[in-house]
Every structure is written in structure tokens, then in C-alpha cells.
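C-alpha cells please, single chain.
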Amino acid sequence: MEFKDYYKILQLDPSAEPEVIAAAYKRLALKYHPDTNKELESNLKMQEINAAYQILSDPVKRAEYDLLRGQDKSSFRDVVSPSKRDDLSLVYQSDFSIASQNGSKLFKLPKW
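Here you go.
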């Protein structure tokens, strides 16, 4: 899976506040939305923008993404000791989803 820099896609600094993230999304959505931009690439660009906003607008998903981003674009499997991998497998699933255990959301940051 290719690592995508969501901050770069939304043209943001990694320390951007939630309000700035929302404003950047709206600005780019107006520019690249297929209804207003008839270029063939606009649909793909809008998909990237939506994916980036979905992660960066959610505080939990953003924290998980920032952890991955800080690990030189490698996965937890590559940088975490085997004893901690089982704990992280509950937390990290594809597309930065949050694991559910008995219907409640579970989120633990690893303690290195």
C-alpha cells in the first residue's frame, strides 16, 4: 500500500487546527469537485481530497495517522516488537479504522 501524505494533499501544515483543515477541504472541494471542474483528473483528485479529509478531520484517526507518518512511512508491523504487535492489531486495521470490542470503541496508544 502506497503511503499518501494527507497534509500535502490538503496543502496543510501538520500542526493545522481542525478549523483550518475544514477550510482547506472546502476550498479544494470547490476547486476540484467534478460538477464544477470538467477535467478528467478532477474526479481522482476529489477522491484523494475526500480520503485525506476523512482521516484528518477525525481526531482519533488523525492521531493514528500521525503515528504512522512519524515512523518514516513504515507500518507498525515493521517497527514494533513482536510482543506489542498483538495489542496493536486490535487498534490498527486497514484504513486506520478503530477496532471494536464488545461493541465499544477501543483505542490504545502503544507505550514504547
